[in-house]
Amino acid sequence: MSRLRWASIDDDHPNINYVGPWELDNQEYDGIFTVGNYGGGQHRRGVIVSGTKFNGNGTIGNASWQCIIDGQTIAPPYDRSFIQNDYAYCSASDLQDATHTLTMNVGASESTPLWLDRIQFFPTVNTAYHATLSGYSVALMVNDTSLRYGPGWQFGPDGFSKFTNIPTSFLELEFIGTQLIWRGIAIPNQPNSQSRATYTLDDGPPTEFTIHPRAQGYGQYTLFETEKLPRNRHRIKVAYEGFEAPLLLNYLYIKDGDIFDRDPRTLGPDLDGLRIDAITEETSTSKPSIGVIVGGVIGGVVFLVLMGVFGAWFLRMRRQRRERVELAFHVDTPPFAAGSPVDLAGAQLYPNESFNPYDSHGTTPPMNQAFNSSMLHYTGPPTSYANPSLPIVTHTSVSPKAQLAANVHPSPGLAYHEDSGIRFSSAHDQNAVQVPPVYTND
Question: What pLDDT is attached to residue 238?
């Protein structure tokens, strides 16, 4: 059978019964062996920790305590003169695999307080008892079976922690639980500049966190905490980016985790046999970071503004082009008699494929011939009706003309064309003699 992991309950756990004037203290006492408390707070008698043994002046006070397990007094494991956070008030081992009762009698005051932060224990191997537990966390030490180290990791000077100062080094693991908390520890000769690292949870995006430089003390601290998760199997990858303060691991806290030291990848669909929460689409995908959201919003706004500017320019150019075309076809035509409007609805447009303004072999029509039609000067853009292969000559006015037959019955005559590509046909000019265009060398 797999080894058991240490389990812990916080000082606010409902199974802890406080008697007397205890109060909650959320202050963190930096510089005395730790940064951050288990669960974020501690209980104090008179002021907090599981142990912070420390008074307001930084000297040893006269607080006293006595630990009793099942009626048997348990001696403190360490010298009382030691000032630190995470101080162990008492410890017992080789207990029977049964239910036990811990009693702690405390003598403290406002000037010499005592703090309680957590209670840590080895649970029984009975999985039926595990199912009755709630609000607990298990500790994964650096040699836990589920931890998979990349290159560059080595043991710290204490022999219990591990660290890396090689960029791109990583650590991977799969775990069962509802949250992961990374606990680090300061080491001697640690650089005074900070570093960066990221963790990737399940299929979510990388989350960046800062590795702070050496603290005032050499104690434990919380490096990062993941978001709350459904109790199920999860995976995480932590990558070190460098380049100064090393990435240190003392142990990991897994809330509502597997009591046994084993890799979840070796388990079946029932995992550890305890409660399993369904992973919905909303919880399986991590929320995007604020930077991604802000970048997306700014990019969307810029895109909409550019589309608006382009749309306004396009509509303006389209309107100007339409106005020029309408102006060309609605100019005044004095030669026409009143009451004889030109029927433009029947006009047909023919592309001009033969006209070339640079052709030197053409001639101009004789100008002494009388015209029975008016001349319309079209000033629209050359791309509207002309052949797209025609060259555009700057400052040269090419004025196509068209013969418009009035709504009368004139006598047959000659009709000259300059081949503009525009023909306005009517039943009234069927008797006219159609003269094709001629050109000169001019």
Answer: 98
